[in-house]
Design a protein that fits this description.
Elements: E1 2-6, H1 13-25, E2 31-34, H2 45-53, E3 57-59, H3 63-68, H4 79-91, H5 94-102, E4 107-109, E5 112-114, H6 130-136, E6 144-146, E7 154-158, E8 164-168, E9 175-176, E10 182-185, E11 199-206, E12 209-216, H7 220-229, H8 234-242
Parallel strand pairs: 1-2, 2-3, 5-6, 6-10
Antiparallel strand pairs: 1-11, 4-5, 7-8, 7-10, 9-12, 11-12
Helix pairs in contact: 7-8
The protein binds zinc ion.
Length: 244
């Protein structure tokens, strides 16, 4: 069985469409596992929710998903994110709101725990350091944990001595799943932040047990033109070109 691991679409329809095309070209998947933040920042929140719902998938809630339906206060957001979030809320249909409302914060799938931020704090905590990842290994029972939120493709590995190691998750290098416990981030579809502006996602193949990361070129201009048209903050528009 093959599963797509996708995260942080952030209302970027051009990027999401390109990733779906890439998945099809690679033979398709049984199901998509979405790690939250379907909306926020980008120009197509309603269209991205609709498109996701046309595919067999599971999805957990991210901080932007909750903020868009007022389940989370905007006081913790930076001004640009808050502006985009207020605009996002106005674009959602009642069905979109009900869908975002229904998303759980944690899903267990076979050997995987799916959360948006971290297993300790599913909505808010960023896993960017070895020290925070190390502590988080005690907060989930499965062998593997899949996270989004930081928008940086990463692999944290628990070491037997109780420590933890980090490595970037590069594309085209298959990650063979052995006995180690791992926390894996597939990067972001709609707003990559690792200096590579291409959309990022992964495919888990259960036979052999391997996860492979893919980067996908998409029409960044098309997304930026729409963002400008909707008066979304210029900093959010420009960052897509550089991938930060
Ligand atoms: Zn995000």
């Amino acid at each position: 069985m093959r599963y797509a691991i996708i995260a942080d679409i952030h209302a970027n329809l051009a990027a999401f469409t390109a990733v779906l095309g890439d998945i099809e070209r690679r033979g398709g998947v049984t199901e998509m596992w979405c790690l939250g933040d379907v909306v926020g920042y980008g120009p197509d929140p309603h269209q991205c929710i609709e498109l996701l719902r046309q595919h067999k998938h599971v999805c957990i809630a991210g901080n932007h998903d909750w903020a868009a339906i007022s389940k989370l206060s905007l006081s913790e957001f930076n001004p640009d994110a808050a502006t985009a979030c207020r605009w996002t809320a106005e674009q959602l249909s009642p069905e979109d709101v009900a869908y975002l409302e229904s998303l759980p914060t944690v899903i267990e799938k076979d050997n995987f725990t799916l959360v948006h931020g971290s297993p300790r704090e599913p909505i808010w905590e960023y896993l960017l350091s070895v020290s925070s990842a190390k502590e988080n290994f005690t907060y989930f029972k499965s062998q593997f944990c899949l996270v989004g939120h930081s928008h940086v493709p990463s692999i944290f590995k628990q070491i037997e001595s109780g420590g933890c190691s980090f490595s970037p998750f590069f594309d085209y290098v298959g990650l063979i799943l052995g006995k180690s416990r791992l926390i894996i981030n597939p990067g972001s579809i709609g707003q990559p932040r690792d200096g590579d502006p291409r959309a990022s996602y992964a495919i888990f193949d259960s036979e052999p047990r391997m996860i492979r990361l893919y980067r996908v070129v998409y029409d960044i201009d098309a997304t930026q033109v729409k963002m400008v048209k909707h008066n979304l903050p210029v900093r959010l528009v420009s960052r897509l070109s550089q991938g930060w």
